[in-house]
């Protein structure tokens, strides 16, 4: 226990020593960060309030459908938190140099396991707490809920919901590492990717939002009732369903049902927590020993790699060739990088195949516009997540060896631009795939396919520029974990700016899409002038944001390291 307190004191001293070296530049940067966080919180509040009003009053989907759509969003969020914690925990619990040092001390490995779990949880949860509280404020303001709704939801519902996702992730990681003693680690990773993709596919196959909306709309305008018979039995066992039920019954005044579902959520959270700590006490040290002997996660051999083999001939200039090949091997020699990339690609494939198979039998132009923009927003969110995860840490991964680049006869700008050469191809391919498959449900309707392609193309280029530029501005040569870099304070600010940009894209295409769908419904289609305004606005904003982000990124590399 004394050693545990010494470690806490050591970390606090590190914090205060870094705080004592504050400069004017740091103060300015933190001030900008606070302004961005504040603007995001205010925007999330008004967005939640407006969206709730829009769906209930303008479209009239009813309370039941609203909360079932919330449940679907929460399921994707739950899966993202769970998957993110698997990857982050693998890096911090098994690949961290700090863990290797602490295991040589008298600190019990069970205590170390608990410390790293809590460290991961609180490190990666700050933004979600801010966003969750702001959204709850907007939701509660629309329904005029009492003051006790907000602390009750944050500490009695949101925290247990996140802890269930995080503890489940660590349990899965312990199982993966235990299985790695008998099976190839690459095989385990493939099975995990299939497992997550299957979860996403089965959930939306069972819930089927289009079928659910059609069934409820049969009773229009009496859509505010409780259509619980439409819920699949398996869905009722999921935490995201319990949270949506708590919101539904809180807003309708059924406090008894709220307390029942809250007790269920907290109870499952406690059981999951106990199971995780018991499993950590028994298996953490043995699985850490197993992680040292993993062979398939070892660095790839340089005599394999095709055109990226260091000895293969190339027509590129010498500096560009060595930098590009170095970026390739730097990525694939880190298991946390390609494992996370493989899992995210698997989820993207499941999403695009599921969307491509949907047929939206909707007639109301406003509702079809909402569905169209929702798909567009989700596509952009996928791209934003991938650029944040893989482009933002690019410059920071140079580490303290960045001095070799600064002292070499190579321009920092060249290094900066080559950082984006390898990621740009897969990201544009992913954006193209999302464009094609998300346009399938709206095939045959003029303008919508072009609008989707323009929006995805512009957003891909903009988000890549933002993350590459801001990642260079908020560079951290001390942190070696790319996942923690992409969860840092600077990464959070970059993501919030990306969210603001995605909201702009949605707003700019709202009127053109709605006018197009309304004209098609009335069989009087004439291309509205709003379409050209939307294309122009997106092109201009993409150009301006990209130029500003790249200028900030390149200039930041010339400062003293």
| Radius of gyration, taken over Cα atoms and rounded to an integer in Å | 25 Å
Determine the structural class based on helices, strands and strand pairing.
Answer: mainly alpha
H-E order:
HHHHHHHHHHHHHHHHHHHHH
Number of separate domains: 2
CA(first)-CA(last) distance: 39 Å
Q: What is the strand tally?
A: 0
Strand coverage percent: under 5%
Q: Counting H and I runs of at least 4 residues, what is the number of helices?
A: 21
- Sheet bearing the most strands, described? none
Q: What general form does the structure show?
A: globular
Mean pLDDT: 77
Pick out the low-confidence regions: 14-21, 295-300
Helix content: over 70%
Keywords:
561 residues; 2 domains; globular; mainly alpha; single chain
Mind sketching the topology for me?
Blueprint: H1 2-20, H2 24-59, H3 62-94, H4 97-102, H5 109-123, H6 126-143, H7 149-179, H8 185-207, H9 209-217, H10 239-252, H11 255-292, H12 318-332, H13 335-356, H14 365-390, H15 402-407, H16 412-419, H17 421-439, H18 448-473, H19 482-485, H20 489-521, H21 530-556
Describe the protein.
The protein is mostly helical. The chain has two domains: 274 residues, no CATH class; 228 residues, no CATH class. It is globular.
Quick structural gist:
This protein is mostly helical and 561 residues long. The chain contains 21 helices and no strands.
